[in-house]
Write a sequence for this structure.
DNA sequence: ACTGTTCTGTAACCAATGTTACTGCCAGCT
DNA sequence: AGCTGGCAGTAACATTGGTTACAGAACAGT
């Protein structure tokens, strides 16, 4: 597969891993957002600490937050939007692993934080995203100090493992047309929009197949009245 | 696929999840084994606690320790042997996920312990196995109390995630003949024996393919001088 | 309107894998 | 020896998915 990927916006363009002092306006927003998404999960003291050390970031769609081989210096808590987690092999072949959504975090990042190991995956924003970055030193401190934090971290791992399982099920047990339809449904759900703005090539990368195959199967799904095809977007029918 | 699996020995036959008081002989053995395998990892106080509440179990090959839909009441620490972790879909189609080896534990069990959720996978002994069972209540207690325990648990999750990644890589990026050869090498390594005692059907289940395909590819590998085929076992050549 | 680019549709073909069916072989048993 | 059940080998065929090649449609910029 020698088709070149369209260029990513790399994290370097958006200094998301730097910890600048945030403005009072941001602090207020963050307080509210955090309460909404993580309030029921964390105890008051922990929320305060997060406010203390966390940095609020707004990141547009398509930005690479973490790349394969990179080291991780901060941990994201998702307020809104979604992050796409992608695996790549030596030949540059790609495969979508799963999406991380709000109220959650990336367990891969967790392990990287603890092990100080290199990332095995690429993380990039699927939609516009708001998140709070936490310096990784806090990971272990909070794990000792707060039961709710431990619960959260364990739960994140649990979710990630389950999503990996779902991915394996999908690759191992489903045919390409089923995988394709599932992906489209997932994308529509995440973006809260039945119009899926993407190209066939883009989908082919995510499913690790070829553009021709995707076009072929999409046409079949259109004939089965599951969707309608357009240039640069697909309209998924509600069922 | 309507071929019936050969019957498993179910856990019920071996009451591994019950905590009977162990004999002094077992306690001594356990002390030694634990020190050898987990000594460098855990602090003294934790090792003592493990000795206090853990139960040593010897389990023969082919026993189901945990099945899909079952609840988990104890957590295993592997002293020797190997556990095979298997996924199954609604149609009863199987797929080998990975092996758990000594000095390790099953992260799936971990999540089940914490979440009190049902198991999503089946765990069964690949070889004769010795392990120490820990009541799950200790999980959270120790996570708060011992840094080394937290490290161990996080590391287990990390390993499991990486093994799931490796599995995904294998299914997504490799062809069946490569997957087959990798599986055989893995089996030889785990059993420390180049003689792999299994049937083609058994392998077919693990790779989620058909017996005919396995036979075909094994024949190809034999012609490529990677192995020799025999009834009920395969001799893998050292390379 | 003209041009180059990107995206999509489609045909023809190929390779890998899955399926069905049948055969012979080996081991254990009587 | 003869029978039986499980295992392995193989042919023939079907299906799925991957590859190559090409054409037309949509779009952006000039």
């Amino acid at each position: 597969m020698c088709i070149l990927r369209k260029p990513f916006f790399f994290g370097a363009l958006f200094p998301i891993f730097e910890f600048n002092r945030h403005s009072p306006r941001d602090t207020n927003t963050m307080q509210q957002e955090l309460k909404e998404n993580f309030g029921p999960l964390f105890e008051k003291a922990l929320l305060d600490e997060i406010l203390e050390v966390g940095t609020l970031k707004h990141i547009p769609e398509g930005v690479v937050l973490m790349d394969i081989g990179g080291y991780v210096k901060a941990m994201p808590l998702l307020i809104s939007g979604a992050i796409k987690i992608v695996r790549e092999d030596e030949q540059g072949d790609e495969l979508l692993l799963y999406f991380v959504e709000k109220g959650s975090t990336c367990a891969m990042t967790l392990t990287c934080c603890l092990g100080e190991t290199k990332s095995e995956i690429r993380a990039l924003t699927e939609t516009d995203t708001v998140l709070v970055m936490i310096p990784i030193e806090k990971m272990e401190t909070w794990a000792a100090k707060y039961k709710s934090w431990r619960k959260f971290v364990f739960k994140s791992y649990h979710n990630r493992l389950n999503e990996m399982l779902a991915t394996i099920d999908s690759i191992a047990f489903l045919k390409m047309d089923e995988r394709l339809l599932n992906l489209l449904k997932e994308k529509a759900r995440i973006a809260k929009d039945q119009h899926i703005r993407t190209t066939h090539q883009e989908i082919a990368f995510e499913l690790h197949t070829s553009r021709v195959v995707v076009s072929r199967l999409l046409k079949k799904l259109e004939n089965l009245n599951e969707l309608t095809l357009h240039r640069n977007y697909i309209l998924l029918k509600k069922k």
